[in-house]
Amino acid sequence: MALPERQLPRAVGGGVNMVMDFGALRQRLEELRQFVKEYMVPGEDYGIIGDSKPTLFKPGAEKLCDVYGLSAGEAHIEFTRDDTKNPIYISYRVSLPLISRTDGKIIMVGVGSANSWEKKYRWRWVTERDLPPDLSKDNLKQATFDGRYGSYIKYRIPNDEIDDLDNTLLKMAKKRALIDAVLSATRSSALFTQDIEDLEEMTVRQPESVDRRQRTQPDRSNGSPDISQAQKNLILRKAQERGMDTEELNAFVYQATGKSELDMLTKQEASKLIDLLAPAKTR
Questions:
Q1: How far apart are CA 251 and CA 50, in angstroms?
Q2: Shortest CA distance to 158 belongs to which of 126, 188, 186?
């Protein structure tokens, strides 16, 4: 999408100076705010949870790279594995340079890491019937989840499929490095954060006592039937096309509908999501 030259935020570059032109700094920040307001799409380029600062997503970081004339260089990857730990410990640390498309100089180097002992990777949640026979539910952490037909209990157990996460961890580390570099290079930390903790495990609520006989049913007051499998598949495909991972899709669903998972949506709500996930029109 080409923008008139006068609308583009100023290019990033040069060294750090002790004396700053505060007028120019305010103008650059205002230009950035205007660009975010007019050309970045909530739920696609960044997410909003409550009153917290918006979280920059990978598509938004790539859009800022385009407007500032930056490209990602070759990543330096450090890999660590420890099979003596239970569960297995795998870690990736990525250093990613951002390079000016004008002169080829390195503008900023972002650093991102991901490891298999992060909460969302180290553990997995299962229902009682899926518990391993050697584990007692009385000794496990439990949480209440919202499902299509109400609330239900899941138990947290160690993830014994860590090797399946290898590619996921590498991609997450690269994404975090990119966002770290973009926030620093474009001076956009005043507008966005990289903290994604609020977007993780959005379907989990604090443990509470649940009377299975009194589970609340999903709200069908508008008469709409449940989301169809075709709608669900379409939403997942469109989210994948936008480069959204599970965290970002969960945040998008919650922001748009107030529901914590796709299976809780009505057909009408699913149609709304499909429309929102459609490619944005050129303004």
A1: 11
A2: 126
